[in-house]
Amino acid sequence: MKQQTKAQAGAKATSPNPAEPELYTFFRDTVRDLYWAENHLVKTLPKMIASASSEVLKKALAKHLSETEGHVNRLEKIFEELGEKAIAKKCDAMEGLAKEGESVIETTPKGTRARETGIIFAAQKVEHYEIACYTGAHLLASTLGFNNVATLLQETQTEEQRTDKLLSEMATSILMGKSKKA
């Protein structure tokens, strides 16, 4: 018989339907998906930073890069809590969102409000996706009784929401500003 981790045993003891191992598998795959997505962002954000002209936007994206590296570390802690190896599962959605962001950069002139706003909107699409994923993962962790994991997921969700709010404020500032250049 396969040895259960402490976290898995605790989840089954508190899960509303312990006969549903598929729920744990779905949760684990969700965390793997997030792990791939966050690692992909660590590679993508430097391109966005380099393509932005506004120092304020560059600083905001650099701060988010640092937070994203922290999200990767937090997900690795979650894998440890679950007694699982940190394995990434390709996230097609994040790959598509990153490609869309690259397209914005390729099709807008450097230094324009169009590019700056496009970068922000591309980043917000990523944030909205992540917020949805972390919200769902948090709910699953809570349902399965992984309270420590749920707390870690909530921390990331809160950071993603803060970043989204900041990006909205920046887009408003750029679009409502009087200058035509960022």
Note the main attributes of this structure:
mainly alpha
Verbal overview:
The chain is built from six helices and no strands. The model is unreliable at 1-17 and 178-182 (pLDDT under 50). With 182 residues, it is mainly alpha-helical. It is 80% helix and 0% strand. Helix 5 (113-144) runs antiparallel to helix 6 (147-176). It is elongated and about 50 Å long.
How far apart are the termini?
Answer: 62 Å
**SSE run:** HHHHHH
Q: Which structural category fits the helices and strands? A: mainly alpha
The protein's oligomeric status is single chain
Number of strands: 0
Principal-axis shape? elongated
Main sheet makeup: none
Task: Quote the average pLDDT.
Answer: 88
Helix content: over 70%
- Radius of gyration over all CA atoms, rounded: 19 Å
Beta-strand percentage?
under 5%
Number of helices: 6
Question: Which runs of at least 5 residues are low in confidence (pLDDT < 50)?
Answer: 1-17, 178-182
Summed up:
The protein has 182 residues and is mainly α. The protein is built from six helices and no strands.
Topology:
Elements: H1 6-14, H2 21-51, H3 55-82, H4 92-107, H5 113-144, H6 147-176
